[in-house]
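Revision sheet: structure tokens.
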Amino acid sequence: MRAKGRIQTRNMLLEKVWDMNFDPTTSVVETHMSRLRSKIEKSFGDTFIRTIRGAGYVVDAS
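Predicted:
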């Protein structure tokens, strides 16, 4: 939420959240984003996390 409205790359998320160096074969970020979306977005019926293809993710929550 600190980066609301700004693109967060997979690498940035891996380093900030999981303290991991970038591993191109890992699907940790995608797995957790999917789970987070199912918990948050299905409850509210709105999109809060957008995927920016080729760039990363953006949180658009108010």
